[in-house]
Specification:
Order of helices and strands: EEEEHE
Number of strands: 5
Helix content: under 10%
CATH class: Mainly Beta
CATH topology: OB fold (Dihydrolipoamide Acetyltransferase, E2P)
Strand content: 25-35%
Distance between the termini: 13 Å
Strand order of the largest sheet: 3-2-1-4-5
Structural class: mainly beta
Shape: globular
CATH architecture: Beta Barrel
Number of helices: 1
CATH superfamily: EutN/Ccml
Radius of gyration: 13 Å
Number of domains: 1
Length: 87
């Protein structure tokens, strides 16, 4: 799991059938050594929000209901900005 900030939305003209209709977001990890990731989101994260992202591909495949899905990263939590987060 990583902490990331949502920077935008992703739209694709062509996609794997399992990702059709799924919400894809661009998440930039707080860790400078990690590249931005496209993440599947079913929690409703908004641009600018801090989130927890997970690279558990099996959870992404469960989310879209397709074992052959190429999805890997998912939003697994939205961090409450009113609470401090001990890192």
């Amino acid at each position: 799991m990583r902490i990331a900030t949502i920077q935008g939305y992703a739209i694709s003209a062509t996609t794997h059938k399992s990702l059709a209709g799924q919400r894809l977001l661009l998440a930039v990890p707080v860790d400078a050594d990690l590249a931005p990731q496209l993440v599947l989101d079913n929690l409703g994260a908004a641009i600018g929000q801090r989130v927890l992202i997970s690279s558990d591909g099996s959870e992404a495949r469960k989310m879209v209901g397709d074992e052959s899905s190429p999805g890997r990263w998912t939003v697994c939590g939205i961090i409450d900005p009113e609470r401090s987060l001990a890192l």
